[in-house]
Amino acid sequence: MLTLRHYNQDQIAHSHEHAQLVFGLRGQLEFEIAGRGSRIGQQCLAVVPASTHHACGSARGSHCLVLDIAHPDWIRERLGPHSASSLRLLERPDSLRLTAAQQRLVEWLAASPLNDPLIAEQGTVLLLATLASGCAPLGKRPPLSLAALTTYIDRHLAHPLQVADLARVAGLSVARLHARFLDETGQTPMNYVRQRRLQQGEALLRGTRLSVGEIAAQVGYASQSAFTAALVRAHGCTPRELRDKTAG
């Protein structure tokens, strides 16, 4: 039912009697279903209904998790209340975007021993039940949850933060998060982290009597001098001068 497949530049064009779901893992897969073209990459899903002609190929190679549905009765027997939405999903050709949680499940299954029949069957049930909550059309990408990322950053300002940490929170690859962040906010993820460090440091300067060194440590600067230099670059004043202005 669940298999890992690698696609290359060799074009595949056929149809089969069973429905199929193709989940992108790595690379880009050019997909055409019933004359509709799409590109399946990470966090994307192609829906191929039974007996629907489709073609696909990947110039640079693509890895996908493929789910072949043997028969609709199998879904009815095993998914219970989720079966109706799963069967509707398989009725028409489509290209969809998964949520971050759905993609994490796909990647977990891809790393599992799918040659074990029990794992493959239970994984299929879990995956279809998760998809029952819905997916967005591929052309309509939900915006980044900047609030969730900001909350995570603020909670971990005292620690070294990497783009990989934020990518895990967003459920994206490092490269995809970087591109999405730049596209949606106009700045890189690390520039945003530096901005939050400085903003939180300024708030502590204005609202507490903590020493400048303590504040620098709390918001993740390597030293008091590094915090002071960042403040001078941004506002042209030292921590003491900022406090004096606030007090005045």
TrEMBL record:
GO function terms (MF aspect): DNA-binding transcription factor activity; sequence-specific DNA binding
Protein name: AraC family transcriptional regulator
Protein's UniProt keywords contain NAD: no
Transcription regulation as UniProt keyword: yes
Domain of life of the organism encoding this protein: Bacteria
The HTH araC/xylS-type domain, residue ranges: 147-245
Function of the molecule: Regulatory protein of the TOL plasmid xyl operons. XylS activates the xylXYZLTEGFJQKIH operon required for the degradation of toluene, m-xylene and p-xylene.
Keywords for this protein: DNA-binding, Transcription, Transcription regulation
Organism: Stutzerimonas degradans
